[in-house]
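Case study: Bifunctional NAD(P)H-hydrate repair enzyme.
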Amino acid sequence: MAIDHALLVTPSAMGRIDAAAVASGVDGYGLMQAAGAHVAACVLAHYPDIRRAVVLCGPGNNGGDGHVAARLLSQSGVPVIRCGVPPKKGGDAARADAECDLPLRALDDWHPEAGDVVVDALFGAGLDRPAGPEIAALIDRVRNADTPVVSVDLPSGLSGRTGAPTGPCFQAAHTVTFAALKPGHVLMPGRALCGEMHLCDIGIPARLIVSDDPVWRNHEELYRNQLPTMSAQQHKYSRGHLVVLSGPLISGGAARLAAMAGLRAGAGLVSLATPPGAVMAQAAHLTAIMQRSIGDEETLSDWLEDDRLSGFVLGPGFGDLEKARGFCGLLAKSGRPVVLDADGLTAFAGRVDDLGKLFDGDVRLMVTPHEGEFRRLFPVLAGDESLSKVDRARAAAQLLNAVVIYKGPDTVIAGPDGRAAVNSDAPSWLATAGSGDVLAGIAGGLLAQGMPAFEAGCASVALHGDAGRRAGAGMTAEELAASVKSLPCD
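Here is what the predicted structure looks like once written out:
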């Protein structure tokens, strides 16, 4: 049975999926047996020299998976210490406990030894509050002994909804989960706390693995059908004309990076709108990218009468915040798509309502904040610890009627209609000066070619990561921009 590795479901949605599977006739205890078998197989595969398996079992079904794993590990010849609390009577976990003939010791009855491997089957996704002092002391004991941990479903103490620890939390070397990933598996710091992920099929029918509030891992099925294509019948203007608005002489490099990335992303033409005092300096660096001297709103307004200009990037290295707000107002009135990044975002700190009013109607605004910019724009959302990064991005998208690319190692792409995706596979070396300018340029290039905003957001983040992998560790932003891959031809 194929598993959808892209769908992310919340712990509450997973509970409904489990219940639906049992209601459809699937044997719930059979699901637990399969889950425990996957856990035991993970331990045996990754720790062939294990001396003792220390299986920590909680009172719920997560603990039931642990009881099954303990029994199977013991039958495989591994010495097993089973610790925890007895399960509630009458359920599948109680049956799993009864079928395991190993004694169930108290949690504080285990003392770490070399060669131990902990199986964390305490709570998984079933706990969304801080663990008690006994569990906190146990987590400290495991950490201080540097004992490797294999967690069942999620490291105990980690929120499966937000990806944030609710208090003390295990650091797992491996996490074994079932049927579908949860947001906490891919959002930071949860992704790091989970270690290596193992998504396993335990027999839940694929038709039941659905959510009424789906979030996706970013993948090409989200945007592939909307990618612009190239053909022999096209000419440069039919492939879009992207305009990147440049800052003053001292900071023009950021705009050049965005412009080059937009050209590499397939825009037929790219122009820099350059302040008069910086035209000559920019000309020394440009070949395929054109220039237009734009010094004030009147000059920009006149140029915008050219309806062949099809998309804009405002913000990288722009500098003048008041001027940025004025330019943004003109771009909004033009009715064409706009990417706001860097100074284009900072210009609207404390003025988010004004920005949202500029771009009502069709979704044609994309904003690309990193964490600091997001906090300046949306201090209330950023300060609400009950919200996940997905929640915050969705709320921001609705406030602005925009697609939000909330950057980071767990970049979230969210639209005002509630669609959301988490990008979790970008290389770490993208965290370098100028990388965000390249992303803004890719997004602008795709929007200029007519790609819908949400799909363009997902595709631009994917292309950005792909360029980073191609450029390699130690890359500079110039190398990153040069590594953006053109889109395929028909």
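For the exam, be able to explain this: The chain has two domains: 7-214, 220-227+235-482.
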